[in-house]
Amino acid sequence: MSSKPAKSGKSGRSRKSGGRRREREVSAGGVVLRGGEPPGSPAVADVEVVVIVPMRRAPDGGRVLALPKGHVDPGETALQAAEREVREETGIDTELICELGEVRYWYRRSGRTVPKSVSFFLFSYAGGDTADHDDEVEEARWVALSEAEATLTHSGEREMVQRARAHLEAQGKDR
Hints:
- The protein is α+β, with helices and mostly antiparallel strands.
- It has a single domain (28-173), classed as Alpha-Beta Complex (Nucleoside Triphosphate Pyrophosphohydrolase), CATH 3.90.79.10.
- It is 22% helix and 44% strand.
- α2 (145-151) runs antiparallel to α3 (155-173).
- It is globular and about 45 Å long.
């Protein structure tokens, strides 16, 4: 008999805790950058990030400002899911720069606590129009890197934007 945790289709791994099964949701998303002078340069002051306002509201009923992200589908890698979710939720195409890291948190659904992990990737803008987002998103727009760092609703996503800034600044020092 194996003592490995059972896998559960869409939501990733699950484990037993106190006799109850706890599913860990697995998602992926992206920090997409554009701008800088010349285009693609690490002039951080001129860099913008694409953000979304999902149709789903926060628990208090307020609007959420977020990075594009979503569930990893069966047979899909985290990178493939991130690319797909960015395209669906923002209407834009991207090119991979690097992996940024993972955000882990818990949320409540139907009276249960659900652990979730989101793998984030850093992308550059390759084309497309934010008006071409899907119907799960109320709005997709470009904001200054500093504005995203200050106004994204979730601290883990603000941290991913800070990591993107650090990557840009490190690239600028290498030139």
